[in-house]
Amino acid sequence: MHNSVVVADLWGSQGGGGGGWEVNFRRSFHDWELDEVTRFLNHISAVKVQEWEDSLVWKIERRGKFSVKSYYRSLKDENSPFFPAKEVWGSHAPSRTRFFAWEAVWGKISTVDGLMRRGWSMVNRCILCKENEESADHILIHCGKARELWTLLLSSFGVLWVFSASVRNLLLEWKIKGLGKKRCAVWRMAPICLFWCTWGERNRRTFQEEEMSDTSLRNLFYRSLFEWSQQILILDYLTFFNFLGDGLVD
Ligand SMILES: [Zn+2]
C-alpha cells in the first residue's frame, strides 16, 4: 500500500450495498511476513466502513471523548505475556517514571538509533560512554555508566544477575524469591528508578551540556530509590541500606 492512501481508496462498494476492503500491496511477501499479513487482514476484515462524514472518535471511551484516565487504563490493560505490564504499572514508582519505562519497553524513547531509523542522518554515539552506539537497551542496561548503577543495586540486595539484552526482557525477568513483601516492592521499582536516573543524566549531557560525576549519579540514584520507597517504608536513609541487604528470607 502506498503511504498516502486513505481508507476511502481501499474501500470498494463491490456493487449492491455492503462494500468491502480492496487492498493491493506494493510488493509480494516473504515467508516470515505472512503471519503478520494474515493478522492484518483479519483485523481489518472485522471493520466495516460506513459512508458518512469523518470525525475523530476515541474508541476506548463509550462517548468517544478522549481522556487521560482512559488512556492510562488502556496502557494498564496491556495483558500480553510478552510485555511487562504488571512489572511496570504494578510498581510503586511515580507515574511519569512508569510511563517512561513503558515507552522504553516499546522502544519509543527518542534515542539516536530511533531518529536515524526515521531518516535523520547523524553520528550515533552514546553520550554516557562515548564508545558504543546509543539505543534504549544500551543506555539503560549495557552502557558502562548504567552498569555501575546496576552493580551497585545488585550488591546492595546481595544478589547476582544475568542481564537480558532488552529492557522488555529485563523487566519480565526481574523477579526474585524470598525478599519479603516490602523489600520486593523496592526491588520492583529499582529498575525503573535506575532507568529514570540514567536517562536523566543522558538528557543533562545532551541538552544542558552538563555532566554529573559518577559519585553524584550514584547518590542521586540511591536518594531517589529511597524517596520512592517512603510511601511503603518508614526508614531513615541509613537503615534503608541495611534493610535492602538484609539477606533473603525463606
Ligand atoms: Zn554508553
From TrEMBL:
Report the residue ranges that make up the Reverse transcriptase zinc-binding domain in this protein.
66-150
| InterPro entries per UniProt | RVT-Znf (IPR026960)
Annotated protein name in UniProt: Reverse transcriptase zinc-binding domain-containing protein
